[in-house]
Amino acid sequence: MSIKKWMDLDIDNLELLEVTNLEKARVKQHVLKKHKKAPFWRNIAVASIIILGATVTTGFAFPTIASQIPFMDQIISYFKDENQTNNFETFSTDVGLVQTSNGITVMIENAVYDGTNITVSYAIETEHPFNDSLSHHWFDVEGAIAASGSDAMKKITDTHYVGMTTITPTFKGDVHPETVQVTWKPTSFSDNEGVEVKGDWYFAFSVERLEGNLELLNKTVQNKDVTFTLQSIEYTPVSTNISYEQVVSDELLQSWDSVTPVFKITDNLGHVYLDKLSGGGMSPDHFKTFKGTTEFGTIQEEASQLIIQPIGIASLNDGKGQIEIELDPIVIDLK
Question: Mean of the pLDDT values across residues 49-53?
Fold first, then answer.
């Protein structure tokens, strides 16, 4: 069947399933969405999907379970106040995979890969009495030798959660591929009161890298114990990414177990992008050197300068104490 015939389907008159008018409308909306479709890089049977028709070669797949989740196209709206969601809907890949197991339905909505980080939006519908906190197993990225990131989840009703996960993979030679292949096998969901539900969910999808503008900087600030070099900054339609290296003295490490950088990042107009936060990184030599990346949202168009202040957090770990080592700010003129 041609793509045109798929687009002209009269969904309101289909009798394939007994569904509500709302569900029909949401399936139709999914067909007409302008997001690009994520290519499946493993067996398409891993997703709980149903295809209208016996044989389809056009690539249109319709996750009917997603039509039963009323917030399937609204996940990003719950994170609008978070800077990293800027332009997410416009430039993200439409994943649209759904699976149900043991009373929990999980849907991956969209994903975006900015060349450094992968951000994924997802939703959960559950029959089980979880509290406000809900944790799960991490995403995997093929070819990554390590990964870090963050996960924000919000409970929006007694049975519904929405989430945004950012994954920062590290690849051999620090060479990031043009396409990343992501898998997610949660295995179980649990809260901090001991409620745990195991199940069988498995997702696989790939996301292409967004085009960005990379600027090499190699700007260094230092004091007697810490040398920090801002190696580069990359601007993409959804994010700003900085790459850096920190080197600390042996004397400092004799007193502290670890030294990691966080950042205060503002512009000349006073907008705050990060306030003592950081991203993922690695140290091959017990924090003598530390290489990492940090992501924040797109910069305000009116700004002419970006001000990045590194702060070294020297810590004894395990809550035993820490100090902050402030370095001079690095000022970047925006083009």
Answer: 27
